Amino acid sequence: MTTLLYCGHCGRDTADGSHSDCRRALAMEPPRYCAECRRRMVVQVHPMGWTAKCSVHGELAG
Question: What's this model's pTM, rounded to 2 decimal places?
Answer without folding.
Answer: 0.86
